[in-house]
């Protein structure tokens, strides 16, 4: 199966990917576009711009075009749509231009696992974390994935609890042949 783990920053996506990689040893993991691009020398602005998020969105779409059948993606195109819609300069982003490409790319996924912000929060935030932005992105992702506000028509599993509990929820959702 091709599975993407989605969510705002500092909710435990990477931790869940690590748990799932241990439990699904035949699966390949694909790091999130930010880390891929940073490693390749892309110079992100200190506060990510609309252009930075659009570049990550394009990379995320490209990532879905590649790779093996059994793969765990850290983030998917919907994550970047969420960040762009919550961005202070969101008016500079034209969602209608991107939607056909995003919908097409998402058809290459079997499942999106949504990791939302839990109360109490499971992740300690640093003073530099923008909690208002984090909450806004979480809300946008839930609109996009759970409410399907833009007819993305993808299968979504929302998980909660400890990293092990989240991984167990994913495993229980997979067909036996995928484990």
Secondary-structure blueprint:
Elements: E1 2-6, H1 13-23, E2 28-30, H2 33-39, H3 50-65, E3 71-74, H4 77-86, H5 95-106, E4 111-115, H6 131-145, E5 156-159, H7 163-173
Parallel strand pairs: 1-3, 1-4, 2-3, 4-5
Helix pairs in contact: 1-7, 3-4, 3-5, 4-5, 4-6
Question: Can you put this structure into words, describing what you see?
Answer:
The protein is of the alpha/beta class. It has a single domain, classed as 3-Layer(aba) Sandwich (Rossmann fold), CATH 3.40.50. Helix content is 46%, strand content 12%. The protein has helices at 13-23, 33-39, 50-65, 77-86, 95-106, 131-145, 163-173; strands spanning 2-6, 28-30, 71-74, 111-115, 156-159. Strands 2-3-1-4-5 form a five-stranded parallel sheet, sandwiched between helices. Strand 4 (111-115), helix 6 and strand 5 form a beta-alpha-beta unit. Helix 3 (50-65) packs antiparallel against helix 4, helix 3 (50-65) runs parallel beside helix 5 and helix 4 packs across helix 6. The relative contact order is 0.21. The model has no long low-confidence stretch (mean pLDDT 92). Residues 2-163 form the NadR/Ttd14 AAA domain. This is NadR/Ttd14 AAA domain-containing protein. InterPro entries: NadR/Ttd14_AAA_dom (IPR038727), P-loop_NTPase (IPR027417). Pfam families: AAA_28.
């Amino acid at each position: 199966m091709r599975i993407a783990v989605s969510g705002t920053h500092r909710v435990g996506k990477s931790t869940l990917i690590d748990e799932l990689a241990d439990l699904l040893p035949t699966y390949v993991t694909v790091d999130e576009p930010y880390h891929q691009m940073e490693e390749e020398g892309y110079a992100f602005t200190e506060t990510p711009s609309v252009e930075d998020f659009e570049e990550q969105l394009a990379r995320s779409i490209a990532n879905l075009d590649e790779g093996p059948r059994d793969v765990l993606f850290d983030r998917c195109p919907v994550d970047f749509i969420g960040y762009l819609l919550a961005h202070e300069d969101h008016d500079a982003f034209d969602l209608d231009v991107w939607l056909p490409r995003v919908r097409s790319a998402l058809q290459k996924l079997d499942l999106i696992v949504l990791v939302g912000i839990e109360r109490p929060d499971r992740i300690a935030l640093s003073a530099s974390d923008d909690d208002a932005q984090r909450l806004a992105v979480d809300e946008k992702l839930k609109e996009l994935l759970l409410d399907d506000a833009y007819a993305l028509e993808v299968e979504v599993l929302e998980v909660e609890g400890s990293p092990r509990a989240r991984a167990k929820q994913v495993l229980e959702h997979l067909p036996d042949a995928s484990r």
